[in-house]
Amino acid sequence: MQSVRRQLDRLFAVHMAIAVVTGALCFLTPHSLMTPMLGDASSDTHLAHEFVRLYGALTLAQGWMVWRTRLVSDALIRRTFCQAYCICFLLQAVALLRAQIAAPESHSMLHWVNILLLGGLGCAYGYFLVFKTIKAFELPGMDKGLL
């Protein structure tokens, strides 16, 4: 059971690394580099860039949160995080996939990378929810079960 716990901690660490890199890129990229991706230099691009920065801030905070979750010993909390991340990432992947199918000409290859990354993280968290027992969410040495 400890190996399963370590696998979940490894998933948390991978998630943290992805969140920090993407969050930092979204938050710190200057507007001059974002304009080609966002379209013409109208006021709409400034608004879109604000949303990208806000998303980056949330993603950075999520990276910190998932990193610290590795230290949580409560199985129910760890399982709840897995459920939330599974739902969140799969819904984001579906939303991006729908946008890609609806207007493929207005999306780049980066869009497919995001779809695959979000879908992969969602499926990875789903794997732990479907195929692993609640013991996988507990710290090694904990003998009491919550369910």
TrEMBL record:
Protein name as catalogued: Uncharacterized protein
Keywords: Membrane, Transmembrane, Transmembrane helix
Membrane-spanning intervals of the chain: 12-31, 51-69, 81-103, 109-130
